[in-house]
Amino acid sequence: QVELVESGGESAQAGGSLRLSCVVSGYHYYTRCMAWFRQAPGKEREGVAASRIIDGTTYYADSVKGRFTISQYDAKGTVYLQMDLLKPEDSAMYYCAAAISAVCGSTWSNPKEFADWGQGTQVTVSS
């Protein structure tokens, strides 16, 4: 059974940092496109970052480039999202998602391409 479990969301001050974790079980993410999405109240779910695990290619939304970093720790089957220089507009529910490797390309930010999702972890950034 595939399971993605996120953690690490909490309240932070603007300019601060948080690291989100996503533990993947049920399959090895090596053949997957792993991504982080976020959704704020009243807004659509948007792609934040993605990683094609097999070759390490990464993708970022323009709004987070230079501030967020997606990475993985193979021994733990965990995908991370390091978030630095946080802004109030980063406040949202953050979701980990997995898709076939080929999704990591032009369609990486389309949530409809991702079959497996975690339950989400809340990030709140205050000014």
Task: Kindly describe this structure.
The protein has 127 residues and is mostly beta strands. Helices cover 0% and strands 50% of the residues. It contains no helices and 11 strands. A hairpin with a 6-residue loop joins strand 4 and strand 5 (46-52).
Structural class call reads: mainly beta
Succession of helices and strands: EEEEEEEEEEE
Number of E-state strands: 11
Helix content percent band: under 10%
- Through-space gap between termini: 41 Å
Rg computed from alpha carbons, rounded to a whole number of angstroms: 13 Å
What is the mean predicted local confidence, pLDDT?
95
Backbone shape: globular
The biggest beta sheet is recorded as: 7 strands, mixed
User: Which segments are poorly predicted (pLDDT under 50) over 5 or more consecutive residues?
Assistant: none
Tally of helical segments: 0
Taken as a percent bin, the fraction of beta residues is: over 45%
